[in-house]
Amino acid sequence: MRQYQALYDEDGTSLGIVRPSRILDMKVERRKQEDWDEGQQGILSQQRLFGQSPKELAKIPYKFSYVFECEDSDKPHNAMCEDWELGALFLNERKRLGSDEAAAESVRRKFFDELCAPSKDTRFFVGTIFPYNTWVVLGVFYPPKTADQPRQMSLFE
Predict the structure, then answer these.
(1) At 10, phi and psi to the nearest 5?
(2) Which of 21, 43, 93, 106 has the greatest CB tally within 10 Å of its CB?
(3) Peptide bond preceding 131: is omega within 30 degrees of 0, i.e. cis?
(4) Nearest to 1, CA basis, from 101, 65, 73, 93
(5) Half-sphere exposure of 42 (CA within 13 A, CB side)
(6) Can you give the pTM of this predicted structure?
């Protein structure tokens, strides 16, 4: 992650792929504000010029964050996961299981226990939230591990 932070400072690079050396946890925290604020609600309720207005957008009431280590850092990183598949899974699981808590636990099992299992060579697609230079996980790639894989590839190789 440090290499991407340096590239961001140097030339504005805002996307990258990280292969964590160890994934320690996925934290699940209930959001303080579970509904859209007034400004967000105003944007979401705007009339459309063409076609029907979209159906109401559900806000995910939890924040999911990966805690992981990289070879270029001596302390763990904590990065929020903004993967749209995580949100879609949460909404489907809430409908199937009937509760937010059960849905959040199901998402954690999938995105931590399965996608980050020791048998997977998990990588994170990361990007910044402009203008804060806060790096978040945008997606998860989890191919099976093979014995002859190099550790970390450059994004541009």
Answers:
(1) -75, -50
(2) 93
(3) yes
(4) 73
(5) 3
(6) 0.79
The domain limits of the chain are 2-31+57-141
Max distance between CA atoms of the chain, in angstroms, equals 55
If one counts every other C-beta atom within 10 angstroms of the C-beta of residue 42, the result is 10
The set of residues, in sequence order, having a beta carbon less than 8 Å from that of 70 and lying 6+ positions away, is 1, 2, 18, 20, 21, 77, 152
* Side chain identity at residue 58, one-letter code: A
CA 94 from centroid of its chain's CA atoms: 19
| Tens of pLDDT, residues 92-147 | 999 999 999 999 999 999 999 999 999 999 999 999 987 777 899 999 999 999 87
Report the top-level CATH class of 2-31+57-141.
Answer: mainly beta
Number of Cβ within a 10 Å radius of residue 58: 11
Nearest Cα neighbor of 59 from 80, 32, 28 is: 32
